[in-house]
């Protein structure tokens, strides 16, 4: 889902900086009273969510875009999970009139509880693990909530009805299970409407028939689908198709239902999306619904919503279309397992839009995407990617945290793990969780398996923790050409004391030579020693914007604290030097303290080996090191560094 928000400032940015066709930002402004209502609603629906397993729905709806109401019949196939289950809890707003509920061709009774519980009373104990079904006929005027749920409106004077159920709105217009634990395995959607209108929905249009009641459109979707992704839109659409050749050779339709008055803009926008669909299809997992279609239906909400196989969009810019398309993998095929984990939908969709910019647009466009998201996130000093209040729709869909910071978390994981490992881990995650639900620890586990080490520290800082770091880089090159780089860090929020990160530093010579360094920054005030092949004239912090940070500074200075303190270098000696298999560190007795540690660092500043100083004489095995020049750092209350040669 993505809400469009265009301000004068952003328009200025479009023209002069981004040169993009569109700028979107999700801004949600629900009143507090509405949020409280949502809170009530969510607690109401969860208690009976696992009582039965949804297998199939047949939706038969009558919809006239000129009239704000829905009427029809749903048939639900299910399997009970509970021995002796009789009360089946569906979620449907209490305002609907229930015309009948049929079970085995018999009318059965029901009860309503609270605002959203419709309890279907089965007259006999349901058998566990046996497929059964119930048919509910109902009609009424859907309540307005969330981002709309069910909206009757018009475009250029023509009436339209469209739905947008995320996050809790399905129950505003059909009897559902409104949680995030049970996908319906397949659905049929029949929509009957006056003949001048056309109805869009999930899956493939497999039938269309007209009689005195109007035209009935039959859509069929044969993939598992979360309830909030079931959608319909009905108006006088113009329809056209783009062909998309997928990686496996499938020629798949991209089917577009657009307002006749916007046909030209839509055609150029969707044509430009074909290559993005092919790109996404190639990088992580094949397009998940390739046996059916991808498509767009234009609607009146100010943004887009990734309804499965049929995104609803208000306009056809690169940003919005790339974002909604990405959700077919992240959100639809793999759905966040709770609203707390919404970044698994929105962070990924935002990041994939960035990847599409990186792949297809000018380098400056990708840089602008990064700097734009970074400045959005760091405009405030607090906030976690983890949603800390899932009863608040505006918190769940926080543009700054779930979208921008979520996407930057992915970008930083890519930096930390490297492209190969990062993309492989995402592929594994999608394959493992395809057509199912996932939570953040599921994704973290897949990353750790490929990375080969724990990422708890990273997730504690960046996912559960709040805020971001600010870096101060001080550098000094001595006459012997050693370059010392000291990196200080402060954090914007006290939930994180320090962000451990590999820090990218670019060094340049006056003559234009340059070298990228990757410095494993593990503590505030850490000093790195580098032996560049040139005299350094300029040092830049993170020129490619890998790390979410703000107010960073770089200055040339004298490094007088920590391990660059020349006088304290004498507090230990190193021998033999050169050495072949071991080096020994001898610390003068008056300098030895408990809790001292050592690192062996190469000339790039990368830490290769490390350990604790056990006593005033410590022996370090260096057999595995390639031949070359290294530094050994001894760190404690005071620190020192000395070089040695491995032969
Ligand atoms: Zn989205």
User: Which CATH architecture of the largest domain?
Assistant: Sandwich
Instruction: Report the uncertain regions.
Output: 7-36, 562-568
Tell me about the largest β-sheet.
8 strands, mixed
* Global outline: elongated
CATH C-level category of the largest domain: Mainly Beta
Provide the CATH topology of the largest domain: Immunoglobulin-like
Specify the number of helices: 12
Rg, Å, rounded: 30 Å
CATH superfamily of the largest domain: tricorn interacting facor f3 domain
Number of strands: 37
Strand order of the largest sheet: 6-5-9-3-2-12-15-14
Ligand set: zinc ion
N-C termini distance: 59 Å
Mean pLDDT: 90
Instruction: State the helical fraction.
Output: 10-25%
Beta-strand percentage range: 35-45%
Q: What class do helices, strands and sheet pairing give? A: alpha+beta
